[in-house]
Amino acid sequence: MRLHSARRRKSIIGLTSLIDVIFLLLLFFMLTSTFLRFTGFDLSVAAAGGDAPSPKSVLLVHVKSDGMLSLNGRPVKLEDLDNALSDFTSRGVKHAVLRPRGEVAVQTLVETLEVLQSTNLTSVSLAR
Amino acid sequence: MKLTPPKKLRSDPENTIPLINVVFLMLIFFLIAGTIAAPVSRELTPAETREMPTVPAKTDVVQIHNDGAIMYLGKRMSVDEVLEMFPATEMSEPVKVIADKTLNAVRLVEILEKFRAAGHQKIRLITVKGSP
User: Fold this and answer.
1) By Cβ atoms counted within 10 A, which residue in A2, A36, A96, B8 is the most buried?
2) What CATH number did the domain enclosing A112 receive?
3) Domain residue limits at A82
C-alpha cells in the first residue's frame, strides 16, 4: 500500500509540467490562429496605354458609382450581368477589361469580378 | 493517523484532470480549426466574396487601407518601397494584395498599375469568404 502511494506522488510532478506545456501550446495556438477563409482572384492589369489584342474580342465593363454597369456602353444591373455576358461570350468575346468610374468601392469591384470569373472569359484585367 | 496525509495528496491531482481534459480539447480544436497566419490589421475589412474557392492564408500580403495607405509586415510603406521588397522576375510568385472593401477602386487600380509597370504580370487580389 505504501509503495502505491509513493508512485502516485511521482506522477503528480509529471502532470503539472504537462499541464504547463499544454497550456502554453494552447495560448500560442489561440493567439496565432485566424479563422478567416481567404479567397483570391488572379488579375492582370492592363498596361497604361498598352495595345489591346483586338478590339472585337474585348469587352469593356464600366463600374459606376451608383452600382450600375455598362458592357460596351450597354447599361446592365449587377444582378443581370450573368445573362448579359452570355450574349457577348457567345459572340467570341474572350477578354474583359474592368474599369471603375468615380467613387466605386472595392467591394463592388470584387462582386463584379466574381461574376466575370464564373463565366467562360479567359482573362479579366483592370484598367483606369 | 497514517491514512490521512496521503489521502489529501491524492485528491489534489484528481481535481486537475478535468481541467487538463478541457485544455487539451481546446488545444486540439485550435490546432485543427485555425490556420497560423499573420493577422490582417484591425482597421482593414477585406472585400467579401461568396462562391470563390478558398486559398490557404499567406503571410506576404500587401495590405491597402481605405485611405490608400500601403502596409506591409506591419509597416507603412510607399509603393516604391513595396516594389523593392517584391522584385519582378520571371520566376516570382504573383504579388498578393488585400484591399479594404471601402477603398476607392480607382485608387486600387492606380496602385496595381504601378506594380504592373514594375514588371509584375500577375497580381492576386485576396478577399475573404463571406457568409453565403
Assistant:
1) A96
2) 3.30.420.270
3) 44-126
Grouping H, G, I as helix, E, B as strand and the rest as coil, residue B126 is: strand
Q: Is residue A8 part of a domain?
A: no
CB contact under 8 A, A38 and B124: no
Cα–Cα distance between B33 and A101 in angstroms, integer? 40
Amino acid in the structure at residue A95: H
Set of chain A residues whose Cβ sits within 8 Å of the Cβ of B83? none
Report the domain count for chain A.
Answer: 1
- Chain A nearest-CA distance from B61, in A, is 12
More confident residue, B103 or B91: B103
Q: Evaluate whether residue A56 is within a structural domain.
A: yes
Average pLDDT score over chain A: 77
| Burial (CB count within 10 angstroms: exposed 0-12, middle 13-18, buried 19+), residue B127 | buried
Residue A90 lies in a domain: yes
CB atoms within 10 A of CB B26: 15
pLDDT-derived band at B7 (thresholds 50, 70, 90) equals: low
In whole angstroms, give the CA distance from residue B22 to residue A23: 11
Nearest CA to A36 among B55, B96, B66?
B55
- Partner-chain contact B101 A34, CB within 8 Å: no
Task: Give residue B56's Cα distance to chain centre.
Answer: 10
